[in-house]
Amino acid sequence: RASMAEADSPPGVDRLPQRSVLTDSSSFCPRLESPTDSRDKWNKKMDFLLSVIGFAVDLGNVWRFPYICYQNGGGAFLIPYVLMAVFGGIPLFYMELALGQYHHMGVIPIWKHICPIFKGIGYAVCIIDLYVAFYYNTIIAWAFYYFYSSMGTSLPWIHCHNPWNTPNCINYFGHRNVTWSNFSHSPAEEFYMRRVLEIQKSGGLQDPGGIRWQLLLCLFLIFTTVYFSLWKGVKTSGKVVWLTATFPYLVLFILLIRGATLPGAWRGIVFYLQPNWEKLLSISVWVDAAAQIFFSLGPGFGVLLALSSYNQINNNCFKDALVTSMVNCLTSFLSGFVIFTVLGYMAEMRNIEVEEVAKDRGPSLLFITYPEAIANMVGSTFFSIVFFLMMITLGLDSTFGVLEAIITALIDEYPRTLTQRRELLVLGLVAVCFLGSLTTLTQGGAYVIKLLEEFGANCSILAMVFLEAIAVSWFYGIQQFCHDVKVMLGYSPGLFWKICWVAISPAFLAFIIISSLLDQSPLVLFDYRYPDWSLSIGHLISASSCSCIPIYMVYKLLWTPGSLKQVRKAGYAPISSPGLVKTNGDFFGPLVITTTKFGKGGWGKK
């Protein structure tokens, strides 16, 4: 009978897991594949896996993890890092993959099927994704500028004889008896600050200066690549990630082998991994571990929901979550060896401690420290080209994911209007992101990027994921969610996952949020202290996304007909979705589970 049921299915319909789906709860909404579902699907399973890995593995894996690791006890940091991954990061990662795959919807319309009154979370996430696109692609444009600058016969940051160099520029490689003071700058530092950014021509946020036309051109090329990678959906992006998600690993292994052969490399590795067990007694170490694993895996941006929504209904998302999380964490660990072998080499050349070289963090590590080391290697041009090409591909993968989250959410929310106009939607979104990035291309654009990073994404996204975890576990119901997973996989998640989703993961997020609120250090970049008025603008940026949640709740309560009690019940009850129902081996045609607005649902023929 099962074979007959498969034979009678319309062409192109996904083969559904043969599970029994029976319930009489008004809040239960089983969602199996619709027999007329025309939604795009991944061509291959690897297209999906590479897209998720490409999004999760970004520039932060290359610079942030190595810095956080050595700063918080070296090898001892791996203990809190692994614990936070197991009890916080991976459960949230698994939850988002399962939600997207089961409901086959983006981050905005999916809340109609989880808890409608929380739909504002979807709008807030899309706004946060826009802010990320405004500044993140400019960092990729910096890498593109370096990539282009590496094409000459010699690297422009190898000496101090360029028009942008100052008398404080000192090249200590290959020179003896060089005096290094607090006012000294390396050629790589002055190339980044005075040539790429031209930050010396900016007086801060109040005087950002003009737009750097070179960076404008680089950004235009970046967004052009993004458009033609996304305009046809997962059919095209799934092919592009075979290059952009795999190439960085080839480069990492090349750089690791080269770094390991440099003099002094062992000093960097020892400094990277030498455990400092006393650090584990510090709360800040555990906060950094929690924040690192969260921002590394990337739940909450709507990307995992969007990418998994194009999966087959019976895809093993549990296995996908484990595999991609492991790849992400191991990539971070591998990047540490790539970075610190080079830092050990620089310490050997400067005849100083590795700690003095490793004081740079963030973009400075990628655009000053590492290029400086590359410039003094044999074959510097080749290694510079592949390094910055790796950075470009790492950044592009994350951009693909962030913009796909917005595109999928809008198309699923307004299917009649946008489904057949995807190319125009992608073009419009790319244009908006390009225009929104113009302030980051000014001579003081680095200050704008720091402001957007701190207030546009970091604080807000933590709150979004916390609310998402609460809404799914407590309002949608952990038993309901586990039943959804059972429909897809054939087995229910174990007790460990339930405890994590209900208690540990929300506590994990609350821990990060509270700690970040209590540790409000002054915002400083390149010795520029952000004025109070700029911090007020930052708080407005945060409020612009977070305010979507209470605004939508008020809208829902005011515009839904009925008494307040009925309206509240309607706001918490998910809307049903069409599906196939199977009992005792037979599919009973397309059925729909109907849920009355305030009463119990029933079975109805479509």
TrEMBL record:
<feature type="binding site">
    <location>
        <position position="61"/>
    </location>
    <ligand>
        <name>Na(+)</name>
    </ligand>
</feature>
<feature type="transmembrane region" description="Helical">
    <location>
        <begin position="455"/>
        <end position="475"/>
    </location>
</feature>
<feature type="binding site">
    <location>
        <position position="57"/>
    </location>
    <ligand>
        <name>Na(+)</name>
    </ligand>
</feature>
<feature type="binding site">
    <location>
        <position position="328"/>
    </location>
    <ligand>
        <name>Na(+)</name>
    </ligand>
</feature>
<feature type="binding site">
    <location>
        <position position="56"/>
    </location>
    <ligand>
        <name>Na(+)</name>
    </ligand>
</feature>
<keyword id="KW-1015">Disulfide bond</keyword>
<feature type="binding site">
    <location>
        <position position="398"/>
    </location>
    <ligand>
        <name>Na(+)</name>
    </ligand>
</feature>
<keyword id="KW-0915">Sodium</keyword>
<feature type="transmembrane region" description="Helical">
    <location>
        <begin position="280"/>
        <end position="307"/>
    </location>
</feature>
<feature type="disulfide bond">
    <location>
        <begin position="160"/>
        <end position="169"/>
    </location>
</feature>
<feature type="binding site">
    <location>
        <position position="296"/>
    </location>
    <ligand>
        <name>Na(+)</name>
    </ligand>
</feature>
<keyword id="KW-0769">Symport</keyword>
<keyword id="KW-0813">Transport</keyword>
<feature type="transmembrane region" description="Helical">
    <location>
        <begin position="78"/>
        <end position="99"/>
    </location>
</feature>
<dbReference type="GO" id="GO:0051378">
    <property type="term" value="F:serotonin binding"/>
</dbReference>
<protein>
    <recommendedName>
        <fullName>Transporter</fullName>
    </recommendedName>
</protein>
<feature type="transmembrane region" description="Helical">
    <location>
        <begin position="382"/>
        <end position="403"/>
    </location>
</feature>
<feature type="transmembrane region" description="Helical">
    <location>
        <begin position="424"/>
        <end position="449"/>
    </location>
</feature>
<feature type="transmembrane region" description="Helical">
    <location>
        <begin position="120"/>
        <end position="148"/>
    </location>
</feature>
<dbReference type="GO" id="GO:0046872">
    <property type="term" value="F:metal ion binding"/>
</dbReference>
<feature type="binding site">
    <location>
        <position position="54"/>
    </location>
    <ligand>
        <name>Na(+)</name>
    </ligand>
</feature>
<comment type="similarity">
    <text>Belongs to the sodium:neurotransmitter symporter (SNF) (TC 2.A.22) family.</text>
</comment>
<keyword id="KW-0472">Membrane</keyword>
<dbReference type="InterPro" id="IPR037272">
    <property type="entry name" value="SNS_sf"/>
</dbReference>
<feature type="binding site">
    <location>
        <position position="394"/>
    </location>
    <ligand>
        <name>Na(+)</name>
    </ligand>
</feature>
<feature type="transmembrane region" description="Helical">
    <location>
        <begin position="537"/>
        <end position="559"/>
    </location>
</feature>
<dbReference type="Pfam" id="PF00209">
    <property type="entry name" value="SNF"/>
</dbReference>
<keyword id="KW-0479">Metal-binding</keyword>
<feature type="transmembrane region" description="Helical">
    <location>
        <begin position="211"/>
        <end position="228"/>
    </location>
</feature>
<dbReference type="GO" id="GO:0005335">
    <property type="term" value="F:serotonin:sodium:chloride symporter activity"/>
</dbReference>
<feature type="transmembrane region" description="Helical">
    <location>
        <begin position="495"/>
        <end position="517"/>
    </location>
</feature>
<dbReference type="InterPro" id="IPR000175">
    <property type="entry name" value="Na/ntran_symport"/>
</dbReference>
<dbReference type="GO" id="GO:0043005">
    <property type="term" value="C:neuron projection"/>
</dbReference>
<feature type="transmembrane region" description="Helical">
    <location>
        <begin position="48"/>
        <end position="66"/>
    </location>
</feature>
<dbReference type="GO" id="GO:0006865">
    <property type="term" value="P:amino acid transport"/>
</dbReference>
<keyword id="KW-0812">Transmembrane</keyword>
<feature type="transmembrane region" description="Helical">
    <location>
        <begin position="240"/>
        <end position="260"/>
    </location>
</feature>
<dbReference type="GO" id="GO:0005886">
    <property type="term" value="C:plasma membrane"/>
</dbReference>
<feature type="transmembrane region" description="Helical">
    <location>
        <begin position="327"/>
        <end position="347"/>
    </location>
</feature>
<keyword id="KW-1133">Transmembrane helix</keyword>
<feature type="binding site">
    <location>
        <position position="397"/>
    </location>
    <ligand>
        <name>Na(+)</name>
    </ligand>
</feature>
<dbReference type="GO" id="GO:0098793">
    <property type="term" value="C:presynapse"/>
</dbReference>
